[in-house]
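Lab notebook: predicted structure, single chain.

Context: the supervisor wants predicted structures on file for every construct in the current expression panel, including those that have not yet been purified. This is the next one on the list. No modifications to the sequence; it matches the entry in the shared construct table.
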Amino acid sequence: MTSTTPAAEPGWRSLPVGARAVVRRRLAAGAGHVWTDLIGYVLEVSDAGLLLRTDPRPGRGSPEEVRVRAEEIETAKPVPERPVRRSGPPR
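Prediction complete. Output recorded below exactly as produced.
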């Protein structure tokens, strides 16, 4: 009797809509770098890939919607919300 272990589902497929996540994606050949990371909120998950709304640091641009194709995704995982910074002098 033989048993087979089913292939693990890619982690990005289990990301819930609304989750803040980091996605590592492959860049096109000749781009200079092999990978880039995106941090944002999941708007859509499908067999075709992910739709994210980026979460730039304050003062570093506006959020953008970015579609990441399934074949570009190397890995993805949920990440915690950005910490709230309090203003005022350090203690």
